[in-house]
């Protein structure tokens, strides 16, 4: 009695029964749809990746938030796919010419999964990536030591949990567009990442924007779109 | 008994007693410091604008969140300043050559002050601005009718209160980097803009980033930095 | 020492020991009581369905929120029951003549369980159902493509998680009464469906009402009551 | 420096400079746009009412959330308008033939403004209205005494602050579709209406839907749409 | 390296190593200490019950929030103990002469564990108990049918989850002191019992007081203290 | 266009147009209705007090939450009324024979208005009152010095803001039924009394129940009902 | 009818009618009581300061949170008092020999009132004070430039609003005990200082403790107690 | 495709691949880095402890929040390590000369793990520790009986869950600097320790500072830094 009547074919939609892919998205926005793995079975993930790859043979296609089971299914069924167990992603195909650079900066070791998801996403969406880890504000010499690399990027992704202070420090050092990603790392009054989220939204450094808690994917899409449009740089922005 | 001992002159700091301007910021980040008017007296706003203008004669300098009294004081003391009563801003000096375009898109008439602050900020920070107002999602023909202008921008600022749905709709139409600004427009369960903020953070459109509630200034800085770095475009992003 | 003294028979109450069925509800409100499966054992679900069916032989009776174990117990004990593993419901008996049409509209594939519960409930409570899935606002062509079906319904149920923007878009397209159901689909700052709930309560489209997070059942009851009272329609509302 | 470039005329939009009216809404949804008075000047309210009235001469047009100043301006400029200081509304024109009945039920005297806004809205949107006041659950004989009138309505609007229990009691008495409106009446842990809102969303009576805190307007639109579509009734719903 | 130095014997304290019983409490407040089972091992529960029983041989001693393992250990080690698997309590010894009557009223079947804990506690603390179940407000005839029993009690405990409306209805029917217990029964916007808690704190019926979510124990202590002090009643309170 | 049709006379209801008094309440619950002054005009307060006094000539009738204007109007129109500017109450008539004793205990001087409302209410509802002020837990000698008076009461009302710790300390000293009233005294993370409310709900002392923030009235009703039923005491409770 | 019976003299208490001073506190804790000005009349503030000064002639006594009216009344009545309009404090008498040093570090100019209250309090409670202002993390050179002064203190008070990141940065630079004070400076998602409070509680720098929002007084007491006990230092802590 | 490019050696950083130790911290702040065990594998914990021990052979090094598996791995691999299963810590090496005394005071037996973590941390960071358990405010004689030990300490750590009232009581008894640790002990409206946290932040006792929920480590670091700097004491603080 699930009452799912025929809907007939619709232009710009590929119907797999359990999902209706938006095949018009590449034309409309410049980027193909992505497989969001949460709540999908391993075999659905495999079929969706295959379908997207067949529809967009010239691009890399991406699946995120994969369970260990889904990662194993992809590895078994799609030997060309690159699976990252840290970021819980799979990529099929090559992203083409990369343009511009996204620097992914992470405060602590526990933020690694979110940073890896952001890095992989930014590359699939067409940008070079420079990853800088474990530069928490409690040891400022670590972030001050990478100031050059921060300044050389076209867009920054700054990942931090707990109090989420790193974007304010980085945003005060350089004038590069900065997307902050709060993570759910912490306990007690971190309230699942809320403390870091509020901290980043209230950053005293101008030019900081924020995405959802643990949303490395969203930050990666955003930063790649900024980076790949950027004009080649000499030095300091005008 | 306020115990404010001498601190002596520090490089990169201009001390006015009630405030210590970060005069190194232009060198460090490419943008001068800004006068945040909240909690400052009219005469402090005037003196700070004058000081910043004297320090950075070749740029436009900006004051935000001005009370009516502060706006009147600026108009009286600084006849060259451009004061906007809607966005509650004042600008002194010219921003130089503008590069790239920021489109500021607002959902309703009540969002006008935040949109105006964002637009003025983006121009002071070096980008052309295209303002598109009153395109709420309850009348989709209005936003669909401006799709070309959205697609032509280098960065989008989308301003909305209440449920904050406009960024999801715009973000699904074009692939331009999009900064969403939730506003405190609404009542009851909008909880001062919280509903719009949460909506935007959870947007199902990829590539949406968010700033604080009513933070038109922050969105303007961010979007201008993206736009002015952008390479000139032909058509659709690759 | 549980001190549960006899309460004696009460009119309009059928006492099963662990539950006291409100057998007067059909007479009072036009609809029989329903088995809410959460926290009940499989055998209690079976016995309650049987008892309700015996009391109301001319209607369909419904059980919701069934565990897999309860679904299996119902299938084994009541071969005439229709069990839906997606919506986690079981139905025993036939709903009689259906009047009016409820359209159930879901934003994403993850919203399917809530949409299925709403659809089954609306049918048990006496309305025809039209299900429209995967029409999220990030691909507007999908919802614009079904405008006719939306307009033809007597009541709409719109199901969405994450930012919950779909009711605002649908509510701006047609003037049909619209019940919105926020779902707990999302992560981080969705706070278990709170973001979608607040978004829907603040919808800028007039005439949107809301039920609890994941409450497909409540929306189904409400929409069926609206639809089955509706006068037959020609076209556009007067 | 507000940068508001020409947008040119757009079909379905009437541009007044400070607002762009959605003149296509009547055609699209069956109901004209409404003047939301919050944040508008008295003269803007007058002009918007006049414009809407001129565009839709055969309907009643409505303005809500009017300040005392706006109410006085409307009375002075539009002698045909009916202004209600309790509900803070103004109506210009006649709603045409009313169909179906909406019963507006309010728990306490402090809920009167929200109930009045709901009643006026429902009538402007085309339904007969029956108002029942001061029937709080702490004196059950009052609500039990009006059971007949509740049952005779095609849609119920139930308005309550504090703990918001009235919809559960009414929803258990009759099977009429019920829209609950939480109000901000209360103090302390009512948190501006949050307690009533949560109570109504969790109602144990099936078929209760909810609108935003103090949103009498939204409930009125919704209920009128339900009532005016209803088939004429004999007795008890089938 | 846990550094737990000797503290030496203290009057009014019985030291078991892992806990220091307040043996002075009976003298000070009229009631002995109770074993709060959460976080304690089965053998600790057994030893604590034995110790309390030995210290207070003339009273009943109580353990609450027992796991299934702890219940089994008590049953095995203390054959005289009465274990209630619904309320998760164990009682050792007899409470002596009971005075006054506490009526425990529960809205739904899912509230049974909290109601059982309250009933057992009230009896251990010295009051007669009358339990009335499944009288939710969506079927008012059930609660109206027990008005006599409500009025005959010396103190009422009213247990409800979801919207928590029952205390308002009961508190409007009789003038008996009423302690309300919100339960965590519900989902979505019940937020673990918060909706019921806020509803009860904002009750429009005068004379309703509230305890923590699911705190049947606290309500039982409070109500027994009220009931056992009450003068014998004839009819209606003066 | 307020649509307030005649409702006809209803038994147990006295209709004043702007309010419908529950004149059956005294018969039903043992206590007359009370004038809640918030949101009422001074002349309404006067008329309501007069009406209640005429209906219940043998009792004291109470008005709470009176503005300064309403207090002055009562003093002018009803010379027999006793007006308390601290507790913002007015009382007309005499409460009859007082039975039992309520002790009102307040933590700090800022809690005085809530304590005064509680004390006046308890007396109007028929109990003797003993007020003990300024016994905050940061100076324990103050509360320890009044232990005898606490123990002599039949019910305690404990009023505290900030962290709300006083009920836990008092509840550990004596076994008298204790109603805690959190107040909105505090700032910052007191969140308008939320901190005190949560503290009291989580009290480690058994037998503490709680009313809404600043709800001295509710505590007074509850405590008077407990006290006036109490049997005369010798010493320690059994 | 305020029922405030005589309480008789109590040792360690000085009764002024509207307040009962804890005159034993100096003996018990080493520090005299303080006048918390919020909610007190100007004449009460003057009398309380005089009384405390008379009781403790050898110490400085402090009043905080004074309105402008109270500040003027103190200046007029107590010419020896030192009134600070920024920190809203008044001090009467001399604090005696100061021991140890408290450094008060403030992020922005808007934090000045809280910093001034903390500085004055620390001095009244017996410590030398070094104030360092406007060293927000968005311009790190400012805080790095004062590292020596931070390291020389015996206790640090770090005051910041918005995201509250400064304590994490300072706490990573030096090992001095650090008390963080969140301020209500900010807007939107700062939620009255909640963002800064949560940020500080989740600081990744070890050894950061936190007081209530805007609680400069509490931080001053705490830090002075730490500083005045400290042994004289040579260099780096062992 | 994790893109983790070489970062090259950086001074003050020891790179283990999965973590980059801040080896400069001891020089900078006086204390070595600590192993935060949450989210780390047992073998990582072992290697990190070994590495820290090798870098700082003259100190004790600490690991916190160890799973049972990590505790077993440490015991097996590092026989010199002292593992505490209650506080879930491991210590390798000796802390050197201890200076000053930290008293750790816990309200209930369920707070033992947090108290043990605080005690172990304080000792590793160089202070003597005195542990006082089970002195909840519901039995005041227990805390009054240890007043001498409280007064003899150089810094107090007060650990409590539920309403978190103990710091207010202790802070009113003695003038020793006091760090409060809220714990997640409790249920219902304790909201995972939020009630205790808010209670402690709003303490009416001056000089109370607070750390994150369950953060025994942070309190231990802070208190040890205070205690080890303290001058030797005779009696009462000056």
TrEMBL record, chains A, B, C, D, E, F, G, H:
Family matches, as InterPro entries: P2CMN_synthase_LarB (IPR039476), PurE_dom (IPR000031)
UniProt-listed Pfam families: AIRC
Entry's Gene Ontology molecular function annotations: hydrolase activity
One GO term of the biological process aspect: 'de novo' IMP biosynthetic process
Coiled-coil residue spans: none
Ranges for domain PurE: 100-232
Gene3D superfamilies the record matches: 3.40.50.1970
Name by which UniProt lists this protein: PurE domain-containing protein
């Amino acid at each position: 009695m699930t009452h799912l009547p025929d809907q007939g074919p619709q232009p710009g939609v590929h119907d797999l029964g359990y999902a209706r892919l938006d095949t018009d998205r590449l034309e409309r926005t410049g980027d193909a749809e992505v497989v969001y793995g949460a709540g999908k079975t391993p075999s659905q993930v495999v079929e969706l990746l295959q379908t997207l790859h067949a529809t967009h043979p010239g691009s890399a296609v991406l699946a995120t938030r994969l369970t260990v089971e889904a990662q194993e299914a992809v590895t078994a069924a799609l030997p060309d796919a690159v699976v990252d167990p840290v970021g819980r992603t799979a990529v099929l195909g090559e992203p083409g010419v990369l343009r511009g650079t996204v620097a992914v900066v992470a405060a602590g070791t526990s933020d690694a999964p979110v940073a890896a998801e952001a890095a992989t996403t930014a590359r699939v969406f067409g940008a070079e990536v420079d990853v800088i880890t474990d530069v928490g504000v409690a040891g400022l010499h670590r972030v001050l030591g990478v100031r050059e690399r921060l300044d050389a990027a076209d867009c920054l992704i700054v990942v931090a949990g707990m109090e989420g202070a790193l974007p304010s420090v980085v945003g005060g050092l350089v004038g590069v567009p900065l997307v902050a990603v709060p993570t759910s790392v912490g306990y007690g009054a971190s309230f699942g990442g809320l403390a870091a989220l509020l901290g980043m939204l209230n950053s005293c450094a101008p030019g900081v924007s924020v995405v959802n808690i643990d949303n490395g994917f969203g930050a990666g899409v955003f930063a790649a779109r900024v980076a790949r449009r950027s004009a080649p740089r000499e030095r300091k922005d005008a």
